[in-house]
Design brief:
Layout (H helix, E strand, L loop, with lengths): L3 H9 L6 E5 L5 H11 L1 E3 L7 E4 L7 H7 L11 E5 H7 L2 E2 L1 E3 L1 H5 L9 E3 L12 E4 L3 E3 L5 E5 L2 H6 L1 H4 E13 L2 E12 L2 E4 H6 L5 H9 L4 E6 L1
Parallel strand pairs: 6-7, 10-13
Antiparallel strand pairs: 1-4, 2-9, 3-8, 4-10, 5-8, 11-12, 12-14
């Protein structure tokens, strides 16, 4: 059971994230996210022995991504997967251990995967607030997650991967002696999704605002099929 003081601290600190995020990178970041959703799996594609995440609070990241977008191959892009930090911990995820090379040498072999070199003002990635998990892949179907994209247009572009088509209903509309038939598709949501554009549209978005945006997304959708 959580200590009541800890609960109050977590609620009051907007710089503490309830989630960890796996962001894609470089100029093909959107396509990489599409592939993750198509395969329903995050993979250790570089064979590092772990998969990297960041616990940086999502509402505080738009300015960082705008900075990255000035580069041809950005180190991270506003496309990724968010997982509740509590669940990630239960899966085996842990925060990295920042230190110098001598400190890495004294770490037990079984936790060396957590080590990240840190040399302040020289080699410093501590701003990532990195977490790692020592697995080859994470099946999205087995976790409670949501999708992060850059714009509302990106949300629409990924619709076919966010929703599953269920029933189809024919809607006949007689007009001028001709029967026009339109088809309604009934879709079930697979993933919640949020864009950085939505975050920017809410001044000083809080953790509660983020949760509200996610919770308000309907589980089902109805659209005319074309």
């Amino acid at each position: 059971m959580l200590n009541q003081t800890l609960i109050k601290i977590l609620r009051a600190r907007e710089d503490l994230s309830d989630y960890v995020f796996h962001f894609t990178k470089k100029r093909n970041a959107f396509e990489t996210l599409e592939l993750i959703l198509e395969e329903e799996c995050i993979k250790d594609v570089n064979h590092n022995g772990h998969i990297c995440f960041s616990e940086s609070p999502l509402p505080l990241l738009p300015s960082m991504f705008k900075l990255f977008q000035k580069y041809e191959n950005p180190i991270y892009a506003p496309y990724g997967i968010g997982i509740k930090k509590v669940q990630f911990w239960q899966m085996g995820g842990r925060p990295v251990i920042y230190g110098d090379s001598k400190e890495e040498e004294v770490l037990p072999d079984e936790i060396k995967w957590r080590f990240q070199l840190l040399r302040p003002n020289a080699y410093d990635f501590s701003w990532l607030r990195e977490w790692r998990i020592p697995v080859a892949e994470i099946a999205l179907s087995k976790i409670d997650c949501f999708i992060v994209v850059n714009t509302l247009n990106d949300v629409e572009s990924l619709y076919h991967l966010i929703f599953d088509l269920g029933d189809i209903e024919a809607d006949a509309q007689p007009e001028d002696g001709i029967c026009h038939v339109e088809y309604l598709g009934y879709f079930t949501r697979k993933y919640k999704i949020i864009s950085m554009e939505e975050i920017e549209n809410i001044n000083n978005m809080s953790k509660n605002d983020l949760e509200k945006l996610l919770q308000e997304q309907p589980d089902e959708d109805i659209r005319y099929l074309r």
